[in-house]
């Protein structure tokens, strides 16, 4: 069954992971009702809606989007986006990663709980996406394509920052406070910053002996309160999410030459037998059977 009326993508052959590099960029028009997720990604994604309508869901919030709107996806945050059943959207997107990405977005005011940018001036943004893709498609030297695409990405972020600032100025944001002197806009936005910290902690520290109690204490929450907020934001309890992260990492490591014991230790299990039991619960197969199946399919 076809899921898109058209779909095209360009890849960066020489990304630099320690900086901020474009991974790929594309354009598509999904069919009516086509959706992606709920799922998490390993990279950042910026979508610009060119036409039509759709819905974007993240951190317990749902946004109805149309032409000119931008939505940003953060790594390891559960999201779902779906084309309208009558007027399916078309959009362009860019995926990127790197140690500077989070800070660059945060400085613009784009955070996991503020990922939608409304714009009535999409022409400039569309042109930047077009030039970014061109830089990936037409360089014979991948390193030059990486350098140029990174430049276009920064210009894209610059334009998004200008749009955010313009909207805030028009709406009087940034100076609006309540009687206690607190930012009224912040008070009316559900803050999931600590949940995002918990998600990132699990994705970075999954190999360590994490406990939900310890994570809650680190964030200043009682375990039950953290579980409630976490499930609202991601659809999973903290324990379920950590288990999923560890099992997904284990799947990747089982494709390597590491022993089962080494894989177990690498994803936070000191006991290989207990790891094998948990992996079977996850995949329905033992780690050894899973590895053999992957090896056979690769041949």
Automatic annotation (TrEMBL):
InterPro entries xrefs: AraC-bd, AraC_XylS_family_regulators, Homeodomain-like_sf, HTH-like, HTH_AraC, HTH_AraC-typ_CS
Domain of life of the native organism: Bacteria
CDD domains for this protein: cupin_MmsR-like_N (cd06986)
Gene source species: Paenibacillus chungangensis
Pfam families: AraC_binding, HTH_18
Name of this chain's protein: AraC family transcriptional regulator
Cross-referenced SUPFAM superfamilies: Homeodomain-like, Regulatory protein AraC
Keywords: Activator, DNA-binding, Transcription, Transcription regulation
Organism classification: Bacteria, Bacillati, Bacillota, Bacilli, Bacillales
PANTHER family referenced in this protein's UniProt entry, alphabetically: HTH-TYPE TRANSCRIPTIONAL ACTIVATOR RHAS-RELATED
Domain HTH araC/xylS-type: start-end pairs: 196-293
């Amino acid at each position: 069954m076809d899921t898109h009326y058209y779909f095209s993508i360009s890849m960066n052959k020489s990304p630099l992971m320690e900086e901020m590099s474009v991974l790929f960029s594309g354009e598509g028009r999904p069919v009516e009702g086509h959706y992606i997720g709920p799922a998490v990604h390993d990279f950042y994604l910026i979508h610009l809606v060119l036409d039509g309508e759709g819905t974007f869901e993240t951190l317990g919030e749902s946004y109805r989007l149309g032409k000119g709107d931008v939505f940003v996806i953060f790594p390891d945050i559960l999201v779902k986006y779906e084309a309208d059943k009558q007027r399916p959207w078309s959009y362009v997107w860019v995926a990127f990663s790197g140690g500077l990405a989070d800070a660059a977005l945060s400085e613009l005011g784009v955070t996991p709980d503020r990922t939608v940018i409304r714009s009535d001036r999409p022409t400039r943004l569309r042109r930047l996406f077009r030039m970014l893709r061109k830089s990936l498609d037409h360089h014979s030297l991948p390193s030059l394509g990486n350098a140029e695409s990174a430049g276009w990405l920064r210009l894209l972020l610059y334009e998004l920052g200008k749009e955010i600032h313009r909207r805030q100025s028009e709406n009087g944001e940034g100076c609006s406070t309540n009687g206690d002197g607190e930012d009224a806009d912040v008070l009316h936005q559900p803050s999931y910053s600590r949940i995002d910290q918990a998600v990132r902690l699990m994705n970075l520290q999954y190999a360590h002996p994490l406990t939900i109690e310890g994570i809650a204490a680190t964030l200043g929450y009682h375990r039950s309160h953290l579980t409630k907020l976490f499930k609202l934001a991601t659809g999973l309890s903290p324990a379920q999410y950590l288990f999923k992260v560890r099992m997904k990492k284990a799947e990747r490591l089982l494709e390597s030459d590491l022993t089962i014991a080494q894989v177990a230790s690498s994803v936070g299990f000191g006991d290989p037998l207990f790891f094998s039991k948990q992996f079977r619960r996850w995949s329905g197969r033992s780690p050894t059977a899973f590895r053999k199946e992957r090896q056979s399919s690769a041949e």
